[in-house]
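Hi support team,

I'm filing this because I wasn't sure whether my run with NAI finished correctly. The job status page said complete, but I'd like someone to confirm that the output block is well-formed before I use it downstream. Pasting the exact inputs I used:
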Amino acid sequence: MLATPASPLRFKRLLLTGAAGGLGRELRQRLARYCDTLRLSDIADLGAAAPGEECMPLDLADAAGVHQLLEGVDAVVHLGGVSTEQPWAPILAANIVGVYNLYEAARKTGVTRVIFASSNHVMGFWRQNQVIDADTAPRPDGLYGLSKAFGEDVARLYFDRYGIETLVVRIGSSFPEPQNRRMLATWMSYDDLERLVVAGLTAPVVGWSVIYGISDNATAFYDNSKARHIGYRPQDSSDAFRAKVEAAQPVLDMNDPATLYQGGAFVRTGPFE
Ligand code: NAI
Ligand code: 15L
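And here is everything the job wrote out:
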């Protein structure tokens, strides 16, 4: 299902990185109608290009390749990179070197708008009984969250120095359904993901802005009131899944850091175990 009626706003060419991933496969279908050409990239197999698509597989750590990737695009939806807690080497290549390459290429090719898929794990060591907003200080919960915090700062530098606008989307949990009680607060439907990305692509002025990628959930750790200028209006809610999730996970262990902190199990995953 697609979230909104076909938009009259058309881009000549949009770039979607991470197009072979979970969210990339969703947005691949959904972004096509907003542009004449959808350029797709990933280090993983992208399959065959459909009409209106062009596939440019590459490693984001390849600076020359990333430069070519950005040539001739109007805007970038940057999903590519390591998306979970992993060893430092792949995080360094994709999320540190790769993001630097992306912004350098944007500067050199004249691309002026990026939607950057950041993560709630930039903020994972805030507690679940605290509501944070766009101005709250980062508290990454691992190397992955730390790398996304770096990406957010690269984006800010390239706005301050070069005027390249970025909507930083600190995505909560974007899956078909919320999978546990924490995700009742962090969940974002795929339809709302599409709404948020399109809002970021079409908002008149973005500058460097932070928004939390969540649906209209009754419980939330995040306050998006400082991102009203983006015009994102979520239409879905985790509330529809609440009874099912609570039945599947009736008891919470209040001594488990995954229950106490917003980052959930990420706060005790990986090199800090
Ligand atoms: P995913 O792991 O399914 O997709 C990421 C894609 O990036 C993969 O297809 C992978 O092959 C590609 N990639 C990894 N390293 C690469 C490299 N060196 N060069 C080129 N491509 C590379 O992740 P998912 O769930 O689709 O997430 C997309 C983005 O959104 C990621 O940046 C992730 O950090 C972010 N995000 C997603 C959330 C979610 O709930 N799905 C929550 C928070 C953030
Ligand atoms: C993320 O950043 C991950 O990319 C995703 O796979 C989920 O684990 C999500 O956060 C989450 O916190 O639920």
